[in-house]
Design a protein that fits this description.
- By secondary structure, this protein is mainly α.
- The protein has one domain (about 5-80).
- It has one helix and two strands; from the N terminus they run αββ.
- A hairpin with a 6-residue loop joins β1 and β2 (about 75-80).
């Protein structure tokens, strides 16, 4: 039976292993990208939910205090028209 040289066989095996490892790396990256995309989508939804809550609270505060600017550090407020 005919056979390639041991050196050629080793090079063939080495290249095959490298390609296989690179494909695995690509697959891992693809999974990480998909997870990051899902996390991003979930985070965007959560931001919108919190923004809606903030808007509702701002409406309630305006009903209670009028058009004011509130210091977020102290809770003090001043007239928002000035």
């Amino acid at each position: 039976m005919n056979k390639i040289t041991d050196k050629e066989l080793q090079e063939l095996k080495s290249l095959n292993t490298k390609i296989s490892n690179l494909k695995s790396t690509i697959a891992d990256c693809t999974v990480q990208i998909a997870r990051a995309s899902m996390l991003r989508e979930d985070s965007v939804k959560m931001v919108q939910q919190e923004a809606d809550k903030l808007e509702a609270l701002q409406i309630e505060l305006e009903k209670s205090y009028g058009n004011v600017v509130i210091n977020l550090q102290t809770g003090e407020y001043r007239d928002g028209d000035s």
